[in-house]
Design brief:
With about 375 residues, the chain is an alpha/beta fold. It has two domains: about 200 residues, Glycogen Phosphorylase B (Rossmann fold, 3-Layer(aba) Sandwich); about 140 residues, 3-Layer(aba) Sandwich (Rossmann fold), CATH 3.40.50.2000. It has 13 helices and twelve strands. It has a six-stranded parallel beta sheet, sandwiched between helices. A six-stranded parallel beta sheet has the order 9-8-7-10-11-12, sandwiched between helices. The longest helix is centred in the middle third of the chain and has 16 residues. It is globular and about 60 Å long. The model has no long low-confidence stretch (mean pLDDT about 90).
């Protein structure tokens, strides 16, 4: 197939070494572009700007890595696409006040006047990240402030892609930046890259169990969920790797499940084998404190696994009617939903992968 052009993907330095949902999105977008005949390159570190026809950047909540790179892209008069993946500020403020990550120091910081401000808190985290990485020369990239850099990204992007329509109003509210409907594209997550190979290890542990598929970190609320499910005697299986940035939280979670009778944890399940677990589980529980459009909900439904999801997410418009929503701050709502989840159902794609790929590729073509 002839090369249609080159797409350069732009993201944070630890995009591959500390993967998240946005990393999975990049992998899907990269496959879609290459299958359509595009050449792809990545720009995750401090190397010089690669040459490309279109640049695609991920996650406006991490402007430390995006802003200086995309300024160079604009100075070169090249277009960039911006996948926002924005977590509403009000939800983050509530989460950090109620369950501050980072132990005692985190509690002191996030309950202080500075820590309660998402913009101020993110700016301090950016500085700490640079110091931890030994990238002192990048400190000038913290100017202008966090919110101003995000507004610049939104203003200068040739196209802004949202994971759900509900994400747009939160972006406009949190940053005071009106989105131009002519440059705004709804590009939901789709299911790709998982299958059900024979001989998936430990899949019997998922048989008729409540599944929680999430990274082991405070924002995903897995420690509290594990304690609630254990006390209620609910058989549950947690699948997910620890967040390297939250070792204390991961140790507390490991200790909790190690002492549990009803709750198990498998920390190293490859993503491509998840379908076997979704096929065996009773239901997926998503107890997260803040989400945009969680891949796990969409994947579970695609493999016939019922979903119980958090009310703090922006993807509800994509889900079938009747999906239970729980308040992750309220044990009673979680435990009321878990014993009687929806019945298993035929596999259902809540987004159209072909249409999503077509939207992505048309965006690249229109800009290139």
């Amino acid at each position: 197939m002839s090369v249609a052009g080159t797409v350069c993907f732009v993201a944070r330095l630890d995009f591959v070494t500390k993967p998240g949902g946005d990393t999975v999105q990049w992998q899907m977008y990269d496959r879609a572009a290459r299958d359509a005949g595009w050449s792809t390159v990545c720009w995750f570190g401090d190397e010089p700007m690669p040459d490309a026809d279109v640049y695609h950047a991920f996650n406006i909540d991490r402007p430390l890595e995006l802003y200086p790179k995309l300024r160079r892209v604009r100075e070169a008069d090249r277009p960039f696409v911006l996948s926002t993946i924005h977590h509403p500020n009000a939800w983050l403020e509530k989460f950090r006040a109620a369950h501050p990550p980072g132990g005692h120091l985190g509690a002191v910081f996030y309950r202080s006047p500075v820590g309660r401000s998402v913009a101020a808190g993110e700016s301090i985290k950016e500085l700490a990240r640079l110091l931890r990485q030994g990238r002192i020369g990048r400190v000038p990239d913290l100017v202008p402030g966090w919110s101003a850099r995000v507004r610049w990204l939104l203003r200068e992007a040739a196209a802004v892609t949202l994971l759900a329509g509900a994400e747009g109003p939160w972006i406009e509210r949190d940053f005071g930046a009106a989105l131009d409907p002519r440059r705004t594209v709804i590009l939901p997550n789709w299911v790709e890259g998982i299958s059900a190979p024979a001989g998936v290890p430990d899949v019997e542990a998922a048989r008729d169990a409540i599944l929680v598929v999430a990274r082991i970190e405070a924002r995903k609320n897995v420690l509290q969920a594990a304690r609630w499910l254990e006390r209620a005697g609910v058989r549950a299986l947690f699948l997910g790797r620890p967040n390297p940035n939250e070792p204390g939280y991961a140790r507390a979670f490991e200790q909790a499940v190690g002492m549990a009778r009803h709750v198990r944890w498998i920390p190293g399940v490859p993503r491509e084998t998840l379908a076997g677990y979704y096929a065996a589980g009773r239901a997926l529980l998503n107890p997260s404190f803040v989400e945009v459009s969680p891949l796990v909900d969409i994947e579970a439904l695609a493999h016939g696994c019922p979903v119980i999801t958090t009310r703090y997410a922006l993807h509800h418009e994509l889900l079938p009617a009747g999906i239970p929503q729980v308040d992750p701050y309220d044990e009673a709502t979680v435990l009321a939903a878990v014993p009687n989840p929806p019945a298993r159902m035929p596999p259902r794609l809540v987004t159209d992968p072909a249409a999503c790929r077509r939207t992505l590729l048309e965006t690249y073509w229109n800009l290139a």
